[in-house]
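Ticket 4471: requesting a sanity check on a complex prediction with pyridoxal-5'-phosphate. Repro inputs:
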Amino acid sequence: MDVRVRHPRIHSKFITMIPYGRHSINEADIEAVVRVLKGDWLTIGPLVEQFEDVLQNVVGAPCITVSSGTAALHCAFAAIDLSQGDEVITPPITFIATQATAALFGAKIVFADVQLDTGNIDPNCVESLINSRTKAIVAVDYAGHPAELDELRAIADRHGIYLIEDAAHSIGSVYRDRKIGSIADITTFSFFPTKNLTTGEGGAVSSINPALLEKAKRFSRQGLIRNVSEFKITDQGPWHQEVHKFGLNYRLPDILCALGISQLERLSEFKSKRQDLFNFYSAELSNTIFVSPVVRDYVEPMWHLFPARVDPNRRKMIFESLRRMNIGVQVNYIPAYWHPVFQDLGHKRGECPNAEKFYLSEISLPMSYAISEAHVKEVIESLKSI
Ligand SMILES: Cc1ncc(COP(=O)(O)O)c(C=O)c1O
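Returned structure tokens:
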């Protein structure tokens, strides 16, 4: 299958290139969606719970589905009652949604530096940032490699604060024999097309704590309460429902849940292809100018990205050369506090030196289930030609 796609953002003209990430949709996926389109429930139907049930098996904790990974994070912060004046500790090497969704509750974003090898939040940098206003530590499993969850969990427990895990990259990953989704107080997932599985747009929240999950769910469903025993208004009829706290509509429709259920059937296939690609790149790139990612011996990542590292002085040249050769490389990510929205709040370059070193040398190579052998070969040949 040809996985070259039109990429409107890369140049002003449409061009084709081997993308850094791409979905894989098969006939079973299409049939599953079409069945919903022909049925009675496009949304709030039975497939929502069905998807949540199968997801629970995959992530090892009860789940709710939502409309994106960003929505999932927003729900997670709602569930811990994040408010004005609270502080949240996050790593800078992540997509801005990790911070934006907390900042929208009026929380102060505090940046903890990352480990130079994994790009994940460094537990040694976290504790000194905790004070009486700190409400949560947020770990991001960068590229699919789980963060140091036991160390972070211990710090969170010592200070009576929450551990939230942004697992947008890491559904299907395993940390010390435990499934990602079953470890933090709340874990969030994304099903964007470049991710490990897709529903087009979509996401999920998992939690081992039923009260937190219920709060996340309520926030994602307009804050509506239908449970009679919780009603404050008691003189209405059977139609009654009420709101105690504002929420939003972050529901994932049945159409997309059907796609998710079907995709989940291939999750282990997706994982092993991504692992094979990881192994192949790592072997081919040894003794080249590209340094492959490290893997801790107690994790089994499901690789969302292949974040190679190069000489920071040559990164731009390498990136531009590869793009000219139609290899859809990416850089993940600019340190979050470099965004003008954080500079306006007084954050300065230099705040997290490892994150900056990591960013300046990082270049993500095409990594997806859908990539063909011919294109993998083309990627490797292009990399070696530099
Ligand atoms: C680390 C991280 N968190 C959150 C998100 C947000 O997910 P979504 O695009 O599904 O809203 C992304 C998406 O790229 C991400 O990479």
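Notes from triage: The two ends are 27 Å apart (CA to CA). Leaving this open until the requester confirms.
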